Amino acid sequence: MPIAFPHKPGIIAYLTAGDPDLATTREIALAAIDNGADVIELGVPFSDPLADGPVIQRASERAVARGTRLSDVLDLTADLRRARPTCGLVLFSYLNPIVRMGMEAFCAKAAEAGADGVLLTDMIVEEAGEYLAAMSANNLAPIFLAAPTSPDKRLKAIGENSKGFVYAISRVGITGTRDTVASDAPDLVARLRKFTDLPIAVGFGISNATHVKAVGEFADAAVIGSAIVALIEKTGPEDAAKAVGHFIASLRR
Amino acid sequence: MASAVLNPVETAAGRFGVYGGRYVPETLMAALEELEVAYAEAQADPAFHTELDGLLHHYCGRPTPLYFAKRLSEITGGAKIYLKREDLLHTGAHKINNALGQGLLARRMGKQRIIAETGAGQHGVATATVCALLGLDCVIYMGEEDMRRQELNVYRMRLLGADVRGVASGSATLKDAINEAMRDWVTNVRTTYYILGSALGAHPYPTMVRNFHRVISIEARRQFLEEVGTLPQAVVACVGGGSNAIGAFYEFIPDANVQLIGVEAGGRGTALGEHAARFQKVGGGLPGVLQGTYSYVLQNDYGQVATTHSVSAGLDYASVGPEHAMLHDSGRAQYVSCSDDEALKATVTLSRTEGIVPALESAHAVAEGIRMAATMAKDQILMINLSGRGDKDMGIMARELNLAGAKEKIAL
Q: Considering only CA atoms, which of A73, A144, A145, A143 is closest in space to residue A114?
């Protein structure tokens, strides 16, 4: 399974697929992988991204407006898998586009495309019966989110039902960059460790090398999302891949 | 249609058939669990009900009258039409039933900061009112399009002390206001209570909001038996998220001879984007997940949620409460739609025949009630839930009905 973090901390790069366009997302993903990203999270754009802050909201809105479909993101996944056989590929989505395609059809197509795992923003473990069955049948890793507000009982269920890694949300709130790594994060990771041996990735608010180093003190990987998406928005399509490549390379320095 | 989709691990609470459930970011789960426990405790506590019932009576004006609309009935030539007068409640709509219940619950839970979304502004006004009454801090999210078309309610909320925050994303209507309220809640979940304004969202909201509005059908059913001597043949209510309708329907569900009719916004056409008729056969919604619950959602072939249109901000929403989805599939309730123009025409009709100006949302139910009554016998009875009054809509009515310019009386 290509989800692995040989260098600590690992780097997980989130991209909103189709922003600014699918061809550019492909180039950006390759640049991120070639500059040290261990896992690419390909965000499926959605009309109502209620867990996201303004940066990813805008990216999602642009990608939806361009007509980016879940099937396009699956095609992009297959393309990236052919180009980079050993990097981790995770599909990151809100539930509704997947319900529309059909849970089983989606999992079969994701596996066929070469995805390693799936993270659904609005799927909690209690509702995940059909999802977990379809993921398991297709040998895909379901990655659940753990929050600072999750009591131990929930962390246990999250740990037990996740594969690949567990995504620990560094602080309560929506996605977006912050000045510092939230003080909630080390406690959450420590509590999660009691329930799982999987790698633990920390995300939300991670945007520079200092943050990544801080995360490395207590977790296995850092997820960088809004900082990359904002960089793409600022840079424009021609130079985005190069800029993101430089940025990823800078994170471990 | 939706049989195997999204089956939970166990048959969780908060399911209405296959619909409902909890589809939210993990960060909110502890808060939803806390709310579920606190609500169950409040429900079991006689003191909670005593305080709520006392305020519903002395502060809000319950019970609301069941009024026989004689002249309206006569012009249809058919059934006797009764209006359940939720429009007479304090703040002008049924919304206060739920806002008050949840406000008392929030205070009981020790939450000082209240947030809410609003479409037409009636839930925002009700929430701002309750916050003033209970001394709670109040933030209301409202789509900028809705702020424009329901301007008077924006002023009312501000006068009551609420911080009204405009939402510009999406179509800047109710759905977008809910997204923003949920973002606020995710961020401030430890200190904040979210008073959701319709029978929507993740469990326990659809059940809790319905229970706070059940008083509508508890009263109406008793009033029919005591004052009219029989139950109606049909109960008609407009359905946006569906809170007034589920409240008006609920106690009649076991009465198999009482037809339950929900009226959705037909807007200005049947194509996707032109209406908010989730149950429309062609160009309507499909089961999906929006804002925490599994229900019918207006969406395109790829699962992107569609934009909607209605002249009434309160019905202008892409999904619908999950209990209505269940009642629709089981056939216990029927759902029809009524266009912008029909609602406006019904507004004039009710105003001229009864001296009652309905909210544009409620006017959809009035339009369908008039249509149905005309097909029924004179000894039959139909109830329309008049969920709100039209003061807030004067600006739209003035424009759409040319009230400023018309020298001649507008024909019915």
A: A73
Please tell me which of the candidates B10, B289, B304 has its beta carbon nearest to residue A122. Answer: B289
Q: CB distance A99–B288 less than 8 Å?
A: yes
Domains defined along chain A, listed by start = 10-140+207-252 (3.20.20.70)
Q: Which of B95, B111, B175, B345 is catalytic?
A: B95
* End-to-end CA separation in angstroms for chain B: 42
Measured in degrees and rounded to the nearest 5, phi and psi for residue B378 equal -65, -25
User: What is the SS3 assignment for B85-105?
Assistant: EHHHCCCCECHHHHHHHHHHH
Residue A180, pLDDT above cutoff 90: no
- The dihedrals phi and psi of B201, each to the nearest 5 degrees, come to 80, -170
Structure-block tokens of residue A188: 């959450």
Strand, coil or helix: what is A39?
strand
Catalytic annotation present for B171: no
CB atoms within 10 A of CB B140: 30
Residue B171 pLDDT: 86
Judge whether residue A182 has pLDDT over 90. Answer: no
For residue B281, indicate whether it is catalytic. no
Instruction: Please report, for chain B, how many H helices and E strands are present, in that order.
Output: 15, 14
Which has the closest alpha carbon to B20: B28, B30, B12, B9?
Answer: B12
Contact B287 A99 (CB under 8 A): yes
Check if the beta carbon of residue A248 is closer than 8 Å to that of residue A11: yes
* pLDDT averaged over every residue in chain B: 94
Per-residue pLDDT, averaged over A16-45, amounts to: 98
User: Is B378 known to be catalytic?
Assistant: no
**Do A127 and B175 lie within an 8 Å CB cutoff?**
no
Query: What separation in angstroms does the CA of B371 have from each of B84, B312, B343, B345, B366?
Result: 18, 20, 12, 12, 9
- Residue A169 has its nearest CB partner, among B27, B178, B182, at B27
Facing B290 at nearest CB: one of A96, A102, A124: A96
Q: Which of the four pLDDT bands, split at 50, 70 and 90, describes residue A253?
A: confident
- For residue B60, the model assigns a pLDDT of 98
Cα B81 from Cα B162, distance rounded (Å) = 38
* pLDDT tier, A144 (very low <50, low <70, confident <90, very high otherwise): very high
Digit-coded pLDDT (tens) for B133-161 = 999 999 999 999 999 999 999 999 999 99
Contact B301 A146 (CB under 8 A): no
Taking the CA atoms of residue B305, residue A225, residue A74 and residue B170 in that order, the dihedral angle to the nearest 10 degrees is: 10
Q: Give the Cα separation of A220 and A6 in Å (integer).
A: 10
With beta carbons less than 8 A apart as the criterion, state whether B197 and B99 touch: yes
Contacts of B26 in chain A (CB under 8 A): 124, 144-147, 149-150, 154, 158, 169
Taking the CA of residue B100 and the nearest CA in chain A, the distance in Å comes to 26
ipTM of the complex: 0.96
Which of the following is catalytic: A21, A34, A38, A41? A41
What's the pLDDT tens digit per position in A200-211? Answer: 999 999 999 999
This prediction's pTM: 0.96
CB A160 within 8 A of CB A196: yes
Measuring CA to CA, which residue among A252, B69, A235, B148 is closest to residue A244?
A: A235
Nearest to B284 by CA among B297, B302, B301, B295: B297
Confidence of residue B409 (pLDDT cuts 50, 70, 90): low
pLDDT band at B3 (very low <50, low <70, confident <90, very high): very low
B295-347 per-position pLDDT tens digit: 999 999 999 999 999 999 999 999 999 999 999 999 999 999 999 999 999 99
